[in-house]
Write a structure and sequence with these properties.
By secondary structure, the chain is an all-alpha fold. About 80% of the residues lie in helices and about 0% in strands.
Length: about 100
Amino acid sequence: MAKKIKEEKPGKRIRFADFIAFLALLLSALLLLIGPILRKFAGSTGVRIADISSTVAEVLLVLAVALPAWYFARKGGIFGKVVYFVCLVVFIVGIVLGYVL
């Protein structure tokens, strides 16, 4: 008797980076929508919360970009990795300076 060869169907495999990018996009959209509403109607506390939610939204959007960018940069050799980390550090410094100033 011949063995039956089991055919495997290509499953819908979700990459971690794609999931994180989608989740970051979803959360940042919600935070960017809620921020101005809080700024308008919640007084001084709402302004502070809106500023924090805006910063979190920026960080989430960078996370959505940074993960797929890393997959690309690591294939680019040492130059790609150095450029990636320099840009990441510049972004973090920019967020801190924007929040402090």
